[in-house]
Amino acid sequence: MFRLVLWIACCFGFAWLFRRRIRWAFAGILGVWMLVPTVGSPLITGVDSGALSMHAASWLIFAVFTVRLLHDPVSLRRVLGREFFFFMVLALVVLAAFLASRSSPDGGGMVLLVDQILAPVLFFLILLSAALDDPDLVTALRTMLLTLVAVTCVIALIQWLTHSVLFYEEGFLTQYWFNPETDRWMGTLDQPLALSLAICVAAPLVAGLKHNLLQALLLLLMITGVLVTQSRVGLFVVGFSVVAVVLFAKRRVWVRIVFLVVLSVATWFIVQSPLVAGVAERLEDDTGSAEARARALEYFVAHWSDYFIAGQGIGASYKVAVQGGLQTSFENPLVMYSIDFGILFALLYFGAMAYLVLKHAPRHHFRGLTLAGLLAVVVPQTYSSLATRSAAAILIWTVFAMLVMAGDEVVRQGQLLREAQRYPELPAAPYEGAVRERDQAGRRP
Question: O-antigen ligase-related domain location, by residue (predicted)?
């Protein structure tokens, strides 16, 4: 318990120290989630079970939110006021999940509720509030995500080369799915599929980088990383993203052709390497994975009326799968959340995500971000993702926040242009400053 108290104190000290340079706080949150898996979190907090065993990064999010609430409450109030109904829907989902878990003997996964829903949504709120003062925050977040994904890919490749987990081995050995003899690795994330998800949502963002060499290196590293995870969906998605980056990145036609040829040659060499063996075997024989998922979906469809409004509590889907004689979990967060806290509220939660993408995707000009947002909605539905403790939720809510920020910045620039046209006798720069001062009226310095 002493270690947890010390960590919480460090979180609040860090949050207060960087209250005016909040980008560092965001980098800290994303870094802890990406570099410390759930099994490694007790090394920091000292708590490995019980109601206080939330991930170390969740405690940091709560600290940053509290300091933000004290230091700049107006920014939070502005975001909540602008998206009042959206956050009301999310609050309703959290309340439904909480009540279902408290009222059902099969529930009780409150830590999962905090790590995968409450903390990521709070992080989403903090990001939007910070963007009011920082129009370039989207670019900074892109840099953070690409850097962290690149680091985890390098670690996963080293794990594959050395046949060693390198970090947190004692914790991973407690996981039923982990096989130290495997060639399927996850870097510092919780599962190989969590790394695959991170690569999938980050790959389209490479399109916005200016340097061709950096783009090529990152894409090749991501291809290598997804091969190490042996994710079939990830391999398909990353391949599609590579083509999208080549086609839609801002460069001349002849440069695109050369870029595509170089990537194709490099990919050919990768395909000839032993890296492909694992995913090739899974493509030939999925060891009954597809059949198990089909049976799980069939079971849910047959019993959907039991969970239409009220669920059985967070984490109950795993027990339901065992009771139904299924060989695996339901492997789909929409289905699993439907069992946990009701179909209605699960649809509200994932519908809110789709709403963000549909609303803000047409409004921005940030290369690759729309595809990243779409993948953040779709790819998590291919495995347990948000229904198990991992960095999945923080990753997708960060991408959603980037979508909203990029769309809002285009709207703000359009507003500035209209006001400049309305008063052409004054220069544009003073107007931009005046609008910003007006927007920040009444805020603390």
Answer: 217-348
